[in-house]
Hints:
The structure is a homodimer. Chain A is an alpha+beta fold and about 270 residues long.
Amino acid sequence: MMLINGAPAESIPATDRGLAYGDGVFRTLRAENGEPLHWTKHFSKLADDCAALGIPGADEAQLLTETRAVAKAHAKAVVKITVTRGSGSRGYAPPNPCTPLRVVMSAPRPPLPHALDGITTHLCRLRLAHQPALAGIKHLNRLENILARAEWNDPEIHEGLLLDRDGLAIGGTMANLFIVEADQLLTPILDRCGVAGVTRARVMAFAAKSGIPCREEHLPLQRVLDADEVFFVNSLIGLWPVARLDTRIWLPGTMASEISKALDTEDAALA
Amino acid sequence: MMLINGAPAESIPATDRGLAYGDGVFRTLRAENGEPLHWTKHFSKLADDCAALGIPGADEAQLLTETRAVAKAHAKAVVKITVTRGSGSRGYAPPNPCTPLRVVMSAPRPPLPHALDGITTHLCRLRLAHQPALAGIKHLNRLENILARAEWNDPEIHEGLLLDRDGLAIGGTMANLFIVEADQLLTPILDRCGVAGVTRARVMAFAAKSGIPCREEHLPLQRVLDADEVFFVNSLIGLWPVARLDTRIWLPGTMASEISKALDTEDAALA
């Protein structure tokens, strides 16, 4: 089900700057029985990302109403919210004022791979570029993710590890990365590339609340390979422990298990 | 006027990957009396850019027919051609096979600033990221161009000079850059960022044919400031000499004038 600027529709103007330039941002989130999970965090991130690009933010109450409306089409839904700068005169200059476009769509939550024992991952050859002006933002310029994801077809491989141009681990093609070193959680600093997701923030908040040391750091690939545990998180999958990266194999770890349970417990309390 | 996959239409599916991820490429070109200028060069560049992203190329005869159809709506037209990977399943993995989307639209050619004496330019603060996998391609991930273009509102400023993260001059927000040093033409190497446009290639071809030394080089900002002449080119504007960049002022130069006349002569022969 889909709402465009609040009305049932399935198409957008071909002059929209989201198509022309990727001039917008998006969110993907879970909803249960018509209620989006972690709405406040997702809306807050959407608003921050819009502000970073100078796109007027959406009205929260309106967007929540639309999200609920599309979410209730499926008991367990994935909702995608896209906000673009809208249509405007030709050329890169942002129209001022602009009329943003909102697309809110839902789909049934897809079956997720059984990942308790961990997933097999691919070390991506594509290196992420450093663009501090766009780092952290979930914007619509995602060709790097597409090129990285196109590196493998093997259905047994569920995610790819992305490094930046300096060889630092940044995240997955669609998820954030954590590693465990001697009972400490570490996650990459995302001030030059990568997307700072809501579930990453939830893990950091849980760690703070639970007295688990957790820091953002620059993490060269070797730190990942040497880590006791490695896992990916995002709003759709929750947590995926990494069992394999090329020839490196990890056994299921206690930290990933604890964090995964904590995320599930939070979700269950909301659903 | 607009054709979408060959049929008159003004909207695209909201599930298109061009919107979702900027997963596509585009061209902007001039047409006179229904005939696109430098069609073969533009189609060839479009095909190369599609190939670089793994998007099946459009059929040349079909695309030319569509381009002529929209172009004839205006005696002097600007035609924009967009090709995306089309709609597909959720997620970054490119659908295989995919069904590309074609949008071909025209508008009257806008009045261009009178620029014989040169334009005033802005030195952009945004630095272009290095992404060799996407460098040179005119893809739909253009947030860097938008952020750079958003740095000024002054209508007297017609273009901005973009540097990369190393301080090398790369081009304008919408045009390619040439400088003149002692009767030699120099243009930035575009293997880490920037777009390698058709008019840039035409200038290089004209230089080769006319015995004007012309090379691609790494050009630190100081080389631009010290140059005898500086100019921008693209398919819509032709050639814009730079008269001013911050406090640096250039008088009209003979090389820019010669190249500009050569481009106009080629265009006039085609129109």
